[in-house]
Structures are given as C-alpha cells and as structure tokens.
Amino acid sequence: MTLFWKWTIAVFLVLLLAVFLVLCKLAGSPRDAYFMVRYALPHMHRGSLKVGDNAPDARLVALDGSRHFHIRERTGARPLVIIFGSYT
Amino acid sequence: MVQIYNDYKDHADFLTVYVREAHPTDEWQMKSNVKEDVCYAQPKTLAQRVAIANDFIKRFHYPIAFGIDDINNAANDAYSAWPERFYIIDESGRIAYRGGMGPFNYNPDEVRAWLAARYGAVKHDPPAAPTSAARSTPRPA
C-alpha cells in the first residue's frame, strides 16, 4: 500500500475516533453514543418551519383514546403554547 | 412548565402534544428512567401510547390540556417535534415562536420571555434558604 493511502486511512480513523469521542461526550458514555446514533439521530429533524409560517394542522387524540380534535381548533382567540414531548 | 402555565393561563392557551417516546426500553433507554421507574417500550399502537400518556398524567397530576399524536406521528412530523420542542402560535394562526430541538436547546425560559414581553413578567419569591438544622438533615439519595 502506498504511503498516500496509509496516511489517508490513518487520518480517516483519527477523524472517526474524534467523532466518536464527541458523541460519547454528548450522550454520556460509549453505550449511549451508540444508542443515540442507532435510535435518536434518524428521528431528529430540524424541519423547515420558521416564525411567520402558517402553523400546520394535525389530528390528535384525547386522553380517553376515542375523541379526536385538531391542533388548529385550539388557535384563534389567544396565543397557543404547544409543548411537544413524551414521558420517557 | 407547569409554573409558566399557572402564571399565564389567563392570557394564553396551552396544549401538550404527546409524541413518540424519547427513551423507551426497547431503544435508547436512560439509566435515570430506570431509577425513576419510567420504563415503557415504544408504543406500536395508539392504545399503548394513550395508556402511557394517562400514566404520566396520573403520576404528575399534570394540569395542562393534552392531545396525543396518532401512531402515524403526523403532528410530530409536521412540527419536527421529537424528542421535545416548544411552539407558540399567535391569534392569526402563524408561528410566533419556534423553540430549539430538545434536550439541549429545549428552553422553557424562552417561552416565559415571549409571554412576559406580551403580558408582563410574573415574579416569584425565591425559595427560602434551608435552616442550619435542615442542612444537617441527611437527604435520601
């Protein structure tokens, strides 16, 4: 293998290690870094919404599991603060 | 966030939208969740998601209006919400505030600042400093 390719592979491995260390720092541990890449990154989207855009509508289910309503039904009279999240 | 709700519920409406789990047991489970006994698999059906949401409400006596995203994650996708995010929609139906993506950029203080700029700040007395007797009392881990 030529010297050029050896250096290229070495630099690539060093960069990979650096990325992995940054992910470990962000996630808290190598285990968490793996799970973050495997399960979290595919679902994290910046999205294209910005201030001033029309708020999208979506149908939601009430806590009883059967009644439905739309997000936009709650807008109009007053500002609506929406908190997206989950228990875990 | 409940404090912000209590401070401004006379001026603005609040809605919690429950989306797909952030740290279910069958994906990226957090040790803190295990400690706090918050162990749920990622729901595969709407009924499962509704059940977890109801557990949350009961455990924390959560007072804010609640809606659950359907299992096709339509609301989550429309708002790029996962794992957690704030929005404020103004009276004309436009986005007035779009919070950063959680957990690192999830900032309730920004929501409070937006509401305070419009309706005035609500001050709270700082929590009382513990007495010397209380300081020496061991606290459970």
Question: Could you provide a short overview of the structure?
Answer:
With 88 residues, chain A is α+β, with helices and mostly antiparallel strands. Chain A has 2 helices and 3 strands; from the N terminus they run ααβββ. Chain A has one domain.
* Chains forming the largest contact: A-B, 46 and 69 residues
Gap from first CA to last CA of chain A: 50 Å
Rg value of chain A: 22 Å
Q: Provide the number of structural domains of chain B.
A: 1
Q: Name the assembly state.
A: heterodimer
Q: How many DSSP E strands of chain A?
A: 3
Strand order of the largest sheet of chain B: 1-2
Q: Largest sheet of chain A, described in full?
A: 2 strands, antiparallel
Number of domains of chain A: 1
Mean pLDDT across every amino acid position of chain A: 91
SS-derived structural category of chain B: alpha+beta
Task: Tell me the layout of helices and strands.
The complex is a heterodimer of chains A (88) and B (141).
Chain A: H1 3-27, H2 30-40, E1 59-61, E2 68-70, E3 80-85
Antiparallel strand pairs in A: 1-2
Helix pairs in contact in A: 1-2
Chain B: H1 2-8, E1 13-18, H2 31-35, H3 46-60, E2 66-69, H4 74-79, E3 85-89, E4 95-98, H5 108-119, H6 132-136
Parallel strand pairs in B: 1-2
Antiparallel strand pairs in B: 3-4
